[in-house]
Amino acid sequence: MSLTLPPKVTDRAFARLAEIAETAGSAQALRVAVEGGGCSGFQYDIRLDEAAEGDLVLEKDGAKVLVDPVSLPFLSNAVIDFSDELIGARFVVENPNATSSCGCGTSFSI
Half-sphere exposure (CA, 13 Å, Cβ side) for 66? Predict the structure, then answer.
């Protein structure tokens, strides 16, 4: 039986969430979920959302990241980060469980 470790959230991701909350005037959490689909079998669904019953809540300085119980095994030991590059600024998932991913960075397979 393998151990499911929660994903880690970088300080940069938490800082960006705090900036979003300050701009919006309300503190919504970032939901990171895994859904079937995408060009590699699974895809990430990353959006602002409210906490639901059963969610894993990762929190720092009032900023929260939510992971639902179905998505948690797919995100075991993953790193949730914020990337601000020339191609755009976005939240990204570095997932050690993914055996392959596509160029868009939102789809992967296990």
Answer: 17
Distance between CA 8 and CA 88 in Å, rounded? Answer: 22
Q: Phi-psi category of 54—alpha, beta or left, where left has phi over 0 and alpha has psi -120 to 50?
A: left
pTM score: 0.83
Domain 8-109 of CATH type 1.20.1290.10 = no
Q: How far is CA 50 from CA 6, 26, 29, 37, 82, in A?
A: 19, 11, 6, 24, 20
Domain ranges of the chain: 8-109
Q: Using one digit for the tens of pLDDT, what is the confidence trace for 48-99?
A: 999 999 999 999 998 999 999 999 999 999 999 999 988 788 898 998 887 7
Q: Is the four-CA dihedral 85, 107, 110, 11 of positive or negative sign? A: positive
